[in-house]
Amino acid sequence: MRQLICVGLVSLVTACATSRSAQVTSAGTGAEQGRAFSEAAVTVMQAYDLESRYEEAVALGQFAGERARLLKDEGGEARILAQQGRVMSRMLRHRPGMETAQVLEVLHRARRLADASGDASARVAARNSEAIFHYSIVLLTGQGEWATVVALLEQARDLAVSSGDSRGHLDALFYLGLTQQFQGNAEAARSTYEHGLSLARAAKDVLMESYNLRHLASLAEDRGELDSAITLYEQSLRLREQVGFTTGQMFALTALANVRARKDPKDAQALVLSEKSLTLARAVKDPAGEREARTSLGRLLLRRGEVAAAVPHLEQALSNSETHEDWWSAVEALLELGRAHSLRGEKVLVGERLRQARTVASSRRLQEALVLVEKVEHELGAAP
User: Which InterPro entries match (predicted)?
Assistant: First the structure.
């Protein structure tokens, strides 16, 4: 990934220099060089994103967007803004201080420019990025509607198919699968992921292959097919390591750790995987990855009966989740803390943690989280 960034930056500098000279020659040549510049900028921003270098991606987007505007390259500016908005959407969960209004402003401008330019790839990118923003908001806060997400993704998918935009098509398909999965339609999601996996392999798109494998693994785990889930998670992790997808590696490691521990609570490798995820998250200063890893470590330690070691990880995960307003993760941490208190025989504290979890899930309209709360309430004999 570092090599890709270096090559991309060289291409960006070259494209910037040649586009300046091209402005003096012909309009046609200038347009070609403008596109080369915007494509190089988007490539580097995507690479930064995969390494969790979000601030650098956004800063480059701001510079490159201004440059594309000077070159009067509406399609290029739209693609840059779409990628910038996509990174900013991720920062809502991974970094403090980003406001949703800031992200929407960028995404709306990207879509307006894309539509005005008639650039098919820009129109696809703008719709996919805006859909991802709304997907994140619905999933993490319970606000908004799935219908908005689906409509944008279906528009992006259809535009991508008609224009031959392979990555745009795969992007839209994957997020359509996610909306199906999180709305409880597992079979539809499975079909969508399998279709996306087939297309990704045909296109030799390793990153999108890893996404689809990871979520097919999740569905297999939900069905109780643990050996199949482990195999799929391992395949996804290897691909993410291959392309240097740092953020994806963190979550793949914790997912693999959790399913291995579910199969065997004493699996020592599961702890190693979660600890590796935590080390990686702390190295890149990614709070979302850190809270995910700490929740995983707490859960695994509880299954091993090591309550004293588990509780600090879970309390830090809860504090992190509340600070960054990741309410789904807060519910998960609260439920694991409820289990910890149960193992200690602290019935009053069990009830307190479960009430907190129910309040968060209900107030944030996190229906899937509420189902999980009810399951743990039944498990611990602490129904409201």
Answer: Bac_ResReg_Asp_Phosphatase, TPR-like_helical_dom_sf, TPR_rpt
